[in-house]
């Protein structure tokens, strides 16, 4: 039995796996406390809580964190846990739990799960892009998780796609996540609404500024034509960046993850079309497969458990 | 003794290595004949010529080709050898030579050589970008050559960096190689000259349209201020794309290759500066090392020889 944890900005999800990783045998949750010692306390008590429930000791523990994690398992910076910087998560947890602990970026652990037992199953060349507040990405290359020199590979959301474009909060002009993250879809929808191109959205939300993800999802499910036009424009931005990654990495499968995946084929179909439109030599190469993530919100925790004790 | 060949658009270079790969024990050349059977004839006769000179049989042969080569060693398309398509180079040469033959893209073989015995020596995470007619790229990741699912990884020159920018001959808007290839530097210099911002270049070349790589190199060596301003603008384009690759792949070393490397530190220094300006979190990560390729025009042939017989 192995335990995997996903440390998000507001909550920590812990799962125990044994046998089929897609069917955790225990799932616990706790709120995230944005402070280093309390973070370790939270993790330790979730691990011990699961062990008490199962009456069994986990032989290894894996942790995925939304932040910059280096190869030694030190968390350098987590945008949503500002109280924790340069914190040796792996060393501290290994000491407290006295067993092997693996610590990785959460996009990395989610990608490992999706590549091995999710949408990328069966392929040795998988790129996963998670469209959320920003864009997280990670890769399985030649069957192995690729971390990079420092462990910082996958910052694909910061790939500049519009060198003269608008500035991101990072100061960079035109990075991909400015156009293709979940946040960007909201901006696009509110811009369309302000231009009078999203009347159903405005009717649902009560105001242009009130439009959020729930209104977008409802309008997509309703097949509202104006909303689908906005989604197509958004899918073009996603596809353009995915095509860049296809040119650079030549994956067999691109897994699209993040909360937006709830939009289903209404999102994935136009992403497939726009990616194909931007990949060169499409007549000389087999088409890349683009699929929605299958493991949902538990992917990062499941992948962390799978990576615990050496993958 | 192993033999490596670099198949370019106009000539084929063959080297034999034994011991130190950077010191070939034989170097032969022949013109490229743009026809599949003649190409194999040329390769076979270069191999047999070297073997006759050395009085020794190569135990394996490697080939690097400027084109789309898949993992089975089939050349699908080579922009500068239009007469050769969908040609199983590896199978044909294995049959003729009756020994192991490795066939790869030339940027891939050059990268292997630079990563192992050139500018990337000692690092397991090397990205090489070759600035020539277009931009070729290849990667050594976790110490291994990365080829991609089909063998087509490294088409980084087609990464879009200006989604609303000018169209490339491929039809794509704003791919990196439109701004940062050797070709692009020539365009930039002629544009500056037409605007009256490159008087020394015009004086050397006799006309704006006459400006070519030789005039650019001479003006750089002269430290002509107008030329160095153009080169800085060009280095910014290079650095922007290199920073994208750093965000995506987190390499330790980026090797800059291609004919432009003759410009030396006048090019590499501003590329270092602009890359650093575009990489986020520079205070949280060790700086990527950016160096000029060290093996010169023989890198692709040397790397092909090194990859022959299993690397």
List the defining traits of the structure above.
five-stranded mixed β-sheet; 311 residues; 10 helices; alpha/beta; homodimer; 12 strands
Structure explained in plain terms:
2 copies of one chain form a homodimer. By secondary structure, the first copy, chain A, is an alpha/beta fold. Helix content of chain A is 39%, strand content 19%. Chain A has 10 helices and 12 strands. In chain A, the strands form 3 sheets. A 5-stranded mixed sheet of chain A has the order 3-2-1-4-7. In chain A, strands 10-9-8-11-12 form a 5-stranded mixed sheet, sandwiched between helices. In chain A, strand 1 and strand 2 form a beta hairpin. In chain A, helix 5 packs antiparallel against helix 8 and helix 8 crosses helix 9. The longest helix of chain A has 25 residues. Chain A starts with a strand and ends with a helix. The relative contact order of chain A is 0.16. Chains A and B meet through helix 8 of A and helix 8 of B.
């Amino acid at each position: 039995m192995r335990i995997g944890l996903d440390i998000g900005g507001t909550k920590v999800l812990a799962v125990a796996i044994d046998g089929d990783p897609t069917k955790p045998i225990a799932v616990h949750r706790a709120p995230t406390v944005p402070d280093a010692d309390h973070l370790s306390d939270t993790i330790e008590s979730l691990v011990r809580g699961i062990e008490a429930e199962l009456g069994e000791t986990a032989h290894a523990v894996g942790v995925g964190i939304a932040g910059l994690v280096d190869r030694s398992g030190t968390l350098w910076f987590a945008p949503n846990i500002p109280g924790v910087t340069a914190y040796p998560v792996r060393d501290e947890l290994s000491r407290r739990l006295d067993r092997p602990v693996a610590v990785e970026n959460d996009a990395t652990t989610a990608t490992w799960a999706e590549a091995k037992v999710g949408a990328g199953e069966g392929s040795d060349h998988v790129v996963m892009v998670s469209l959320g507040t920003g864009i997280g990405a990670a890769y399985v290359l030649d069957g192995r998780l690729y971390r990079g020199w420092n462990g910082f590979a996958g910052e694909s959301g910061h790939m500049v796609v519009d060198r003269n474009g608008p500035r991101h909060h990072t100061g960079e002009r035109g990075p991909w996540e400015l156009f293709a993250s979940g946040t960007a879809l909201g901006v696009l929808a509110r811009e369309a609404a302000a231009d009078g191109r999203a009347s159903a959205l405005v009717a649902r939300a009560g105001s242009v500024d009130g439009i959020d993800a729930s209104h977008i999802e409802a309008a997509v499910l309703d097949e509202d034509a104006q909303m689908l036009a906005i989604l197509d424009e958004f899918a073009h931005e996603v596809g353009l960046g995915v095509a860049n990654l296809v040119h650079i990495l030549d994956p067999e499968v691109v897994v699209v993850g993040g909360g937006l995946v709830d939009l289903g084929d209404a999102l994935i179909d136009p992403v497939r079309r726009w990616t194909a439109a931007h990949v060169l030599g499409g007549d000389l190469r087999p088409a890349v497969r683009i699929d929605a993530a299958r493991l949902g919100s538990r992917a990062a925790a499941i992948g962390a458990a799978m990576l615990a004790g050496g993958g």
